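Dear H.,

Thanks for agreeing to be a second pair of eyes. The structure we're designing against is below in token form, covering all 862 positions.
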């Protein structure tokens, strides 16, 4: 799995990418072409221009642009490249005549179906430069144009047909309009040229994609056909003989031997150093890890271990570079040997990188790196597969380097490349199986598959499918298509492994920074950084799977160009400005709210509810102003959204009317303040204390300590009882019952004494005792008193009830309880009925006993 990372670097070093393989599939050497360089404009003539492999003709310079037509040295004798570059004119004005000639030549060039792809790519680069210049030129005179439009608007609307206006105003309007037309002309011309350049670039991209697709689908001679094997064997023989012949002939030369002897000390030093670094790098790192001081935390030990383990790649690669340099200094190798020697660092890099990644993802032991597969045997197999993938990549790098300098046929290339390709396909297929088993085991041990496991399972199935398809396509003869499937799969596996290691490193570093050894790797900051790294790696994945760098650049340019909203172009820069201004305004609003809450409002006469209303209103106004300022500074014209705003208004009128109603009600509550935070209210069946009032709803905490969210519209449109809004005092009523026959005057006196003795009861008005009437079982009294703080009503009620029980007991006053007397009529008839039921039961008892006895006797006989 880990060898895939190396292929990404090898792709740039030795042309392993699908595009390079497809180029090999055509069997054609690309034409060399270089634009004229070093030219200077002198009197309209380009001098000093040179072209590599061709002749520069027709070079002219007009204004600030140099247009040169270069004919490369093409063996087929066809193809013309139009190379256009901006010159160093004295003015910043674009030469549209030069652009028209360049565009015409580009269209003529693209009309030739046999033009070389490299010439088309060079043409595309020049068109991109022109397009960038036109994009900048579209904003020419923008400030002055905006000023003129404001001046024209200040003159008022133009008179309708048949109407007139003052002569001086009409004259001034005409002058300003003429100036506006002249100032708009460069921008309009630049926009038209931009559209043409953009269209030509799109056509170039289409042609290149079509050629890439046709190259991938080219059918080569089948590598499993024995008739093609002799050509491959002949190439191997030629390579062996070439290396032997080159080395022998160079050794026979006296000057070569003398140079070798002169450089022998340096060669020996480099060879020994390179061999030592490649052979004993592991021992050096093991000794270094034992001697280095170990951090106290687990995360610190993991970070140090990872950094030290990276030397497993760096040291052998440095040794390979030293070895290659030593072999080059010997002077004993010709083109074929030199190509193999130059590929040596890439081979060593591939092998050791694959081994390093395999060890990290499939650790040898559970410990610092405990994120691997749970079964040790599977981890051992994963390490073996990773090393094998690195070794195969190294072999492929060596094959590519050697065949690049040797003449060979398509059949020989197919036969020599298929065994390496098939071996790599088998390895990644087996790696996919291993990862899939791991996913199944992890899912079986949990309640459900996580997002990471689902992605890993999808990746495992993908590499299995590409490995199988690569073998089948390669066997048939579609070598380019098979290569475009197998090797990008390896590279993708490597990139995924790198992302895995990088994510763990970020989590560990975050734990160290926060000084928490128990910090979870799934924390917000590590996850966001990992997500950003994944997004940043998407262009790499696209390049791996055959996308051209120009395609990625084109997407980026279109992203930076933004999109059109009405007459305004909105770009990512505008969004960035908007975000910065809005964030600044939001922070200032929060700071001002904090100052109001902590320093200013406490020194005023406003109660807590009023202070909260002022703070909330300030926050809403500040956020609204921050949004307006951000939109203004970003230059976003909202007039183009008028239709959308109208549609939203209709939607608000129908579908969002409840939300709007609650929003308006929230504003009313904040301004009118019939209910404030901390009030004890009753709204419908809900009773509790108001905890917070937002623009949409109000949170009420009941006496059961549960929160109830009440829409603000209910507080405005329904009846609300507020016990503590303007006054904390409130009336408490305690009902009391006494038995019939009790002295009512005595009961009234005792109850009044109990009420007046309560500390929370006010004496003006004094507590009152009311004789409410006669009940079914008792006489009903009520104690009515006004409490200083109604919030203590429950505790006061409890104390009053206790004192009532105590005083009634001492005064001999009886507290009645409900009693029920039952009178039975027709007692004689009821007795006869009961006796009849008893007689029937006595008669049935002997019959039941006889039946049981007969059943028992029958059982014994059986």
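And this is the sequence the design step returned. I haven't edited it by hand at all.
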């Amino acid at each position: 799995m880990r060898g895939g990372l190396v292929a990404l670097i090898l792709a740039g070093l030795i042309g392993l990418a699908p595009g390079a393989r497809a180029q090999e599939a055509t069997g054609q050497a690309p034409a060399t072409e270089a634009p004229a360089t070093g030219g200077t404009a002198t009197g309209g003539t380009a001098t000093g221009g040179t072209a590599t492999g061709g002749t520069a003709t027709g070079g002219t310079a007009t204004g600030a642009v140099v247009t040169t037509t270069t004919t490369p040295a093409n063996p087929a004798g066809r193809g013309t490249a139009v190379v256009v570059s901006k010159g160093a004119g004295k003015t910043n004005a674009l030469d549209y005549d030069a652009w028209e000639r360049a565009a015409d030549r580009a269209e003529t060039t693209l009309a030739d179906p046999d033009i070389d792809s490299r010439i088309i790519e060079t043409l595309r680069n020049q068109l991109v430069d022109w397009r960038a210049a036109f994009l900048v030129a579209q904003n020419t005179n923008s400030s002055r144009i905006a000023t003129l439009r404001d001046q024209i608007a200040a003159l008022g609307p133009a008179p309708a047909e048949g109407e007139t206006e003052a002569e001086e105003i009409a004259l001034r309007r005409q002058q300003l309009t003429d100036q506006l037309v002249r100032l708009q002309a460069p921008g309009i011309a630049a926009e038209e040229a931009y559209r043409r350049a953009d269209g030509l670039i799109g056509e170039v991209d289409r042609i290149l994609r079509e050629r890439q697709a046709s190259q991938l689908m080219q059918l080569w001679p089948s590598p499993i056909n024995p008739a093609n094997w002799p050509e491959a064997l002949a190439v191997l023989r030629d390579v062996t003989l070439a290396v032997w012949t080159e080395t022998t002939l160079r050794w026979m030369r006296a000057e070569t031997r003398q140079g070798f002897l002169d450089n022998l000390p340096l060669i020996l030093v480099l060879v020994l150093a390179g061999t030592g670094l490649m052979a004993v790098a592991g021992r050096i790192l093991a000794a270094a890890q034992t001697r280095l001081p170990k951090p106290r935390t687990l995360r610190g030990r993991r970070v140090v271990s990872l950094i030290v383990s990276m030397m497993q790649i760096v040291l052998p690669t440095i040794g390979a570079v030293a070895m290659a340099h030593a072999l080059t200094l010997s002077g004993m190798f010709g083109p074929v040997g030199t190509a193999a020697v130059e590929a040596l660092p890439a081979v060593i890099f591939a092998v050791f990188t694959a081994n390093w990644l395999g060890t990290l993802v499939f650790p040898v032991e559970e410990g610092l790196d405990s994120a691997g597969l749970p079964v040790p045997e599977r981890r051992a197999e994963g390490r073996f597969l990773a090393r094998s993938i690195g070794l195969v990549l190294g072999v492929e790098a060596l094959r590519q380097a050697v065949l690049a300098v040797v003449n060979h046929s398509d059949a020989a290339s197919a036969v020599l490349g298929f065994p390496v390709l098939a071996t790599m396909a088998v390895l990644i297929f087996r790696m996919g199986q291993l990862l899939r088993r791991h996913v199944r085991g992890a899912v079986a041990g949990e309640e459900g598959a996580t997002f990471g496991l689902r992605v890993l399972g999808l990746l495992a199935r993908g590499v299995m499918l590409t490995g199988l398809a690569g073998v089948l396509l390669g066997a048939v003869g579609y070598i380019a298509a098979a290569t475009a499937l197998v090797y990008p799969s390896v590279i993708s596996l490597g990139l995924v492994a790198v992302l895995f290691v990088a994510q763990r490193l970020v989590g560990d570093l975050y734990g160290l920074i926060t000084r928490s050894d128990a910090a979870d790797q799934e924390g917000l900051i590590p996850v966001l950084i990992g997500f950003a790294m994944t997004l940043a790696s998407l262009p790499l994945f696209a390049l791996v799977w055959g996308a051209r760098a120009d395609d990625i650049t084109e997407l980026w340019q279109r992203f930076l160009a933004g999109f059109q909203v009405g007459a305004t172009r909105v770009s990512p820069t505008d969004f960035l400005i908007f975000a910065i201004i809005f964030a600044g305004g939001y922070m200032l609003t929060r700071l001002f709210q904090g100052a109001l809450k902590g320093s200013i409002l406490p020194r005023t006469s406003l109660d807590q509810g009023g202070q909260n209303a002022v703070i909330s209103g300030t926050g809403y106004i500040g956020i609204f102003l921050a949004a307006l300022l951000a939109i203004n500074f970003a230059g976003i014209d909202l007039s183009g959204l008028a239709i959308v705003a109208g549609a939203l208004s209709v939607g608000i009128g129908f579908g969002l009317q409840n939300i709007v109603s609650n929003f308006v009600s929230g504003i009313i509550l904040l301004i009118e303040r019939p209910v404030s935070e901390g009030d004890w209210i009753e709204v419908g069946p809900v009773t509790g204390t108001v905890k917070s009032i937002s623009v949409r709803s109000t949170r009420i905490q009941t006496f059961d300590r549960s929160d109830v969210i009440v829409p603000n519209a209910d507080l405005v449109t329904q009846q609300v009882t507020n016990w503590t809004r303007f006054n904390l005092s409130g009336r408490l009523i305690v009902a009391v019952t006494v038995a019939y026959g009790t002295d009512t005057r005595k009961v009234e006196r005792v109850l009044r004494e109990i009420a007046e003795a309560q500390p929370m009861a006010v004496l003006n008005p004094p507590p009152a005792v009311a004789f409410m009437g006669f009940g079914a079982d008792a006489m009903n009294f009520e104690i009515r008193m006004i409490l200083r703080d109604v919030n203590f009503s429950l505790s006061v009620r409890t104390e009053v009830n206790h004192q009532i029980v105590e005083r009634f007991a001492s005064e001999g006053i009886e507290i009645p309880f409900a009693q029920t007397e039952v009178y039975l009529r027709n007692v004689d008839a009821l007795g006869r009925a009961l006796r009849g039921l008893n007689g029937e039961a006595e008669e049935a008892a002997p019959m039941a006993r006889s039946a049981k006895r007969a059943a028992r006797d029958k059982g014994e006989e059986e």
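Two observations from my side: The radius of gyration is 46 Å. The chain has a mean pLDDT of 79.

Warmly,
E.
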